[in-house]
Amino acid sequence: MASKIPPSDVLAAWLARQRWFAAKTRRIEAIVIEDAVPLAGAVIAIAHVTLDDGGTDRYAVPLGAPSAGGDVADALDDPRFCLALLDLIARGASRTGQWGEVRGGPTSAFPRGLAPDLPVRRLGGEQSNTSVVFGDAVIVKHFRRLAEGINPEAEMTRFLTERARFAQTPRLFGQLDYRRDGATTTLAVAQELVAGARDGWQWMLAALGDFYDRARRASGPPDAAQVRALAGASLGALDRLGAVTAGLHRALASDPHDADFAPEPIAPGDLAAWSRDVGARLEAARAALGREGLVADLDVRDALDGLRGSQKIRHHGDLHLGQTLYRDGDFAIIDFEGEPIRPLAERRRKHTPLRDVAGLLRSIDYAAQASRPAGLEAWVRAWQAEAARALRAAYRAGARGAPFTPERDEAFARAVAVFELEKAAYEIVYEANHRPDWVEIPTRGLFSAAARLRPSPAAGAA
After folding, report:
1. Residue burial 294-318, b: 16+ Cβ < 10 Å; e: rest
2. DSSP per residue over 349-416, as a string?
3. How far apart are the first and last CA of the chain?
4. Distance CA 187, CA 103 (A)
5. Residue 105 and residue 175 in contact, taking contact as beta carbons nearer than 8 Å
6. Nearest Cα to 23, choosing from 57, 46, 62?
7. Residues 380, 382, 387, CA angle at the centre, nearest 5°?
8. 290, exposed or middle or buried, with CB in 10 Å at 0-12, 13-18, 19+?
9. Per-residue confidence of the chain (462 residues) as pLDDT tens digits?
10. Which of 238, 241, 216, 242 minimizes the C-alpha distance to 228?
């Protein structure tokens, strides 16, 4: 039986309950189905949603035939529909709706000879998107909230697959776009499945748990040598992650002839714009905390001055442990969407890749604090210091001589601290709105980054 689009009030009630629906604090005023593209007994609906504050969003809503007694069926729960999606990508085929079309586009890496009846499994734990696994070969990420234009995840993974041939990111097999009136919106990407890999964040929490168990049995206060001896797994992994991140940046900077990826000199205007961006984030954090004057004495612009002479390049833009996969002592970097709240054009903008290093350092802070056991605070601080040192050192070694990093260690450290400050300010706003019990983690991180940007008393005295 072909699917039917449910009445708008029924669809609105169902949308509001979905984990991937972005505006949970607002009420849906209206839904208009802009187009519906039939596929395998279902439809891919493009839904325009108007919210009670006047805001609007567009969502991709694949709808199947509801079962008896049901009112809405998500077609991504239907293996037949999912296989049809993958087939569109594999063949570069299209399906037309009333106003537009859905078209697949494979890359040169798409695996030939895939069985047409691969087992299909929808992953749990989804947030802003929905992921479906096909056998042990392919994973398709279906975007839900849509943004018109070039999707950075599809663009960057295609570049890394076909041009840079960067082995530490799963290869892009293809993408699925919705096209209408000359505009393109990416609906889904298909990538190589890293079978047996674990989420990098979850793996790190488990490794830290093992470390804390050993720390409880140790005698005396921690020192760096003890921490390195007891936390070899986690510190070794972060050493590897620093090297992989440097390799990613070298790959993204590897084609001077592609205007979208060619490195460019950092101009004075860039430094001024980045300073304003950091200032705006700090202002938002002050408002969220209700603390006027929070770290208002910092000269961020001066701290970024060491980037003069370096290059800006494409970078991940939202790199943290949760955007990695860990398997057999190695990492793969995934999820190149960038921060979803930023417009696509901003997420595709070239910047200093040191923002990615700062993102990982913030993630180390979160991992240490999220798993912190009572009574081991000194060990937590000692691990965090060694973890940050391992990551920074490995990144510096991997990126040494690259034009996108400053030569002087001091310039590198101060620029990274600025972007840690920016990230911590962003996290403060997020936590204040969603997890107030966690807001102390980024607040401490913000003060830590700020302290590294202030002149030391000894330097002042000299």
Report:
1. bbeebebeebbebbeebbbbbbbbb
2. S-B-THHHHHHHHHHHHHHHHHTPPTT-HHHHHHHHHHHHHHHHHHHHHHHTT-TTS-SSHHHHHHHH
3. 81
4. 10
5. yes
6. 57
7. 90
8. exposed
9. 456 789 999 999 999 999 899 887 789 999 999 999 999 999 999 999 999 999 999 999 999 998 887 889 999 999 999 999 999 999 999 999 999 999 999 999 999 889 988 999 999 866 789 999 999 999 999 999 999 999 999 999 999 999 999 999 999 999 999 999 999 999 999 999 999 999 999 999 999 999 999 999 987 889 999 999 999 999 999 999 999 999 999 999 999 999 999 999 999 999 999 999 999 999 999 999 998 878 888 889 999 999 999 999 999 999 999 999 999 999 999 999 988 778 899 999 999 999 999 999 999 999 999 888 888 999 999 999 999 999 999 999 999 999 999 999 999 999 999 999 999 999 999 899 888 999 999 999 999 999 999 876 554 443
10. 238
Question: In this structure, how many other beta carbons lie within 10 angstroms of the beta carbon of residue 281?
Answer: 20
Q: How many residues does the chain have?
A: 462
Structure tokens at 317: 């833009």
Two structure tokens written together for 289: 């905390």
SS3 (DSSP) at 61: strand
Structure tokens at 337: 């969407």
Residue type for 365, please? D
Which of 202, 205, 138 lies closest to 175, judged by CA? 138
Q: Which strands make up the sheet holding 56-64, listed edge to edge?
A: 28-39, 42-51, 56-64, 73-74
